[in-house]
Amino acid sequence: MDDIDSAILSHLQRDGRLTNRELARLVGVAPSTCLERVRALRARGVITGYHAAVQPRMLGRSLQALVFARLRPLSREVISGFEAYLAQLPEVVSVFVVSGDDDVVVHVAVPDIEQLHAFLMDRVSARREVVSFRSSVIYQQTGTRVLTPVNGRHGHE
Amino acid sequence: MDDIDSAILSHLQRDGRLTNRELARLVGVAPSTCLERVRALRARGVITGYHAAVQPRMLGRSLQALVFARLRPLSREVISGFEAYLAQLPEVVSVFVVSGDDDVVVHVAVPDIEQLHAFLMDRVSARREVVSFRSSVIYQQTGTRVLTPVNGRHGHE
DNA sequence: GGTGAAATCTTCCGCTC
DNA sequence: GAGCGGAAGATTTCACC
User: In this model, does residue A156 exceed pLDDT 80?
Assistant: First the structure.
């Protein structure tokens, strides 16, 4: 994980469809070298995949929300069961299992407020392990394009 | 936005580096047709980009957390200012501006609990517009790979 | 929406440092 | 061990049907 790897990661997080040739040019190594580094990053699990990003609004999902739920009993089985259940629902973007007042935070994308209500009632409230929940509408979201390696020891240098 | 577009989106969300040839084969159209459809999806803003996904742990960011903050005064300027400030910090993964008890939810990735504490004190608590905040450690996260188009009218069919 | 051909890219392998 | 250059095969991409 040197400066070249960092540069590769930075560019590929910004544009995952860069050609190997262009990427090599950007980071200043030969295409063959670049290809090997990218493969090594993938093999080491630093890069986990490449994904097209879509705009939920363009898919008819104009309303996004965070749903905070408390589960009981709070066992490993209940948590992973609920998580697996959520992950398979089309409304769910991602699920966080967290510490604190709430046990899980669910990011959902639905067409409108009615569908959000339906989701909360039929998909969340209907579950026996959910003892309470609340939701927050997302007015705006900004994601950081690039996650940079932290200075210091980590992974295998 | 027909079944072929849906299939294209589904495949590209799963693997953003699929070759156009392979994608065409998967969705059952000729490569040139497929290329044009993908370009149209990009041009219409359905696909906003392609990104390599990285594992925060492999970048030395082994601890992730959600930070919930309340801002005052709650004006457009204060919100967008705080959001812009956060977006540029390397610890920040994404920022949600939300309704409810809290005004913003910040997803952060840091090396350890000490760095989380430092982030909360030096980057969050230090800001004048933040009147209160709390944080939750993320024990586990699962993201849905694929966001599907919703049935019904949306965008331009 | 499909076909074919030129331009470009990927990828392997031997060579060098 | 890491990086480079070239050549074979695959892919992209465009004009045209």
Answer: no
